[in-house]
Design brief:
Elements (H helix, E strand, L loop, with lengths): L1 H9 L19 H11 L4 H23 L3 H32 L3 H6 L1 H8 L6 H4 L5 H8 L6 H16 L5 H27 L11 H12 L12 H34 L13 E3 L4 E4 L2 E4 L3
Antiparallel strand pairs: 1-2, 2-3
Helix pairs in contact: 1-9, 2-3, 3-4, 9-10, 10-11, 10-12
């Protein structure tokens, strides 16, 4: 799983890892060197600090989006929420500028998948500064801030490349990527269902983002336990998409666990084709043992 994710995202922007490109001349000293090490050298302390800061900011931003759906909480802690969002916005702006500055192809990075995600992480946060907060379409665009959690997948793929390069077992990394994908799907679907159903006067599936998160968990597991069915067209589209994503994630989890069991029981994960490899060995009696068959070799 980690191999596929690594290949999918390494082609869209600068990705740190053992195969990171050489240091450009303009980044070979001073702050440039520090920035380059912070984003490309997975073994450096600078990379660890920046990675933890961005990860913490992502979770903090997600929590801010969730609590914004509670009017009573916003009324009581509105200034704190705004200050937190402003702090997170500063972190993402600096991260975006740094990524562009060190990118070998800056325009290419801006147009890449991760460049677009980084831009989405910033633009919605500017609306409160401009005083644009009342229009529902703007509210939807602000909800798209939740796409910041996709940046966690980029960091996980970087660690996956590091694990593969050192010939280590990728089971833990695969589970980490799966967990991030599940978390991302739950948060994104939960906030979207809240956007779709939050204004429904009675019997709403998601009167707030926390109820939306519960709806997303139920839909992802396709259990349908104790939640109201969506009444709006957009809500039903979100719910249907969430169920399909849940089935796909269940298949991925089955594959990850299955490969781990194969490797544990038979010493092989099935390879790229998913088939058990054939194991041959010779014992001292001259008997050649082949997986699935035994034949006597005479002298």
């Amino acid at each position: 799983m980690s191999d596929q994710v690594d290949r999918a995202i390494s082609s869209s922007g600068l990705l740190a890892g053992p195969e990171a490109p050489p240091v450009p001349a303009h980044l070979s000293h001073g702050w440039g060197r520090w920035l380059w090490s912070s984003y490309t050298n997975i073994y450096s302390r600078e990379y660890e600090i920046v990675s933890k800061l961005v990860t913490f900011s992502i979770f903090l931003a997600t929590a801010t989006i969730m609590v914004e759906s509670l009017p009573s909480f916003v009324e009581q802690y509105g200034p704190l929420i705004e200050a937190t969002e402003s702090l997170v916005l500063v972190v993402f702006v600096l991260d975006y500028v740094a990524q562009i500055y060190i990118a070998p192809d800056r325009w290419g990075y801006i147009r890449s998948f991760w460049g677009i995600i980084d831009a989405i992480a910033i633009v919605p946060g500017l609306f409160p500064i401009l005083g644009i907060t009342q229009i529902k379409s703007i509210r939807l665009f602000r909800i798209l801030r939740v796409l910041r959690v996709l940046k966690l997948l980029k960091a996980a793929a970087t660690r996956a490349r590091h694990t593969v390069a050192k010939n280590q077992d990728t089971f833990r990394t695969d589970l980490e990527i799966y967990g991030i994908a599940l978390f991302t799907a739950a948060i994104l679907c939960g906030t979207l269902i809240w956007f779709a159903e939050g204004d429904v006067e009675s019997g709403s599936s998601a009167p707030n983002a926390f109820e939306g998160l519960w709806f997303a968990v139920v839909a992802l597991t396709t259990t349908g336990a104790g939640v109201n069915a969506p009444t709006t067209l957009f809500g039903r589209v979100v719910a249907s998409s969430t169920m399909i994503v849940g089935l796909a994630l269940f298949g991925v989890l089955t594959s990850v666990i299955g490969r781990a069991m194969l490797k544990s029981l038979f010493g092989d994960d099935g390879g790229e084709d998913g088939d058990l490899a054939t194991f041959d060995s010779d014992d001292d009696s001259g008997t050649q043992v082949d997986y699935g068959s035994v034949s006597k070799v005479g002298n």
